[in-house]
Amino acid sequence: MEKANNNSGKITKFNKRKGSEQIPWELSQDSGLSLEAIGLLVQLDSYPTNWELHKTELYTRNKKNKRTAIETIWNELVEYGYIVQYIKRTGRFYTYQYFFTVDGFTEEDLKRINSLMDEAGFSLYLNNKQKEAMRKKNAEDAKKETEHEMLMGKIRDVVNQQSNENVDASGSEKSEVHDFNSSKTTHIIKSTIKDFE
After folding, report:
1. What is the pLDDT of residue 12?
2. How crowded is residue 65: how many other Cβ atoms within 10 Å of its Cβ?
3. Which pTM value belongs to this model?
4. Which of 69, 82, 98, 182 is 20 to 30 Å from 114 by CA-CA measure?
């Protein structure tokens, strides 16, 4: 039987600040995060960069919180872009890798991490809330695309109908001229020299 990789569940600090261990005010005043989420992120940040921390340790280090409470807090940090999760299948087991930052990830940060993790055979791991949000976004995008295609089809139909209306029985194109002194429309038939040959 295969053994799971010992590095599975490893949490790695994505350090953007060198030297100081200050908590950015954006994090401490982020009204979108719960106090518990801010507290967990601060706790993660308090460990030295070379400290090997695994997600399972959070359950034993925070005994006053149940595992489900820690999972809820963790998922909140994932949802708000402070933690990024990766997964790789290793035989019959899955290996997980996590990155966190107290500054929040930028698009450039994520591209860099995704590239490194892709080379190592990992895929981005989305929690259920993220998967549902992605399904909704994909459904909305598909709906918008369908509506756009329907609109374009209607526009083509109108243009084709107008083209057909502008050709008389002989196949000559006709134009409309409005007489400003009357409410009548006068049709002018455009003929070419070939029409008379």
Report:
1. 79
2. 17
3. 0.59
4. 69
Note whether 45 and 11 are within 8 A (CB). no
Rounded Cα distance between 187 and 177, Å, is: 6
CB 69 within 8 Å of CB 39: no
> Can you spell out the DSSP letters for 58-124?
HHHH-TTS-HHHHHHHHHHHHHTTSEEEEEEEETTEEEEEEEE-TT---HHHHHHHHHHHHHTT-EE
The two structure tokens encoding residue 163: 């083209």
pLDDT grade for 17, boundaries at 50, 70 and 90: low
pLDDT higher at 43 or 164: 43
For 114, residues 6+ apart whose C-beta sits below 8 A from its C-beta are 124
What is the residue-wise DSSP string for 40-59?
A: HHHHHHHS-TT--EEHHHHH
10 Å CB burial of residue 79 (0-12, 13-18, 19+) is: middle
Half-sphere exposure of 36 (CA within 13 A, CB side): 12
Q: Which residues contact 159 (CB under 8 A, 6 or more apart)?
A: none
Query: What are 65-106's pLDDT values in tens digits?
Result: 899 999 999 999 998 889 999 999 988 999 999 999 988 888
Give the containing element (helix H, strand E) for 180: none
Contact predicate 14/100, CB 8 Å: yes
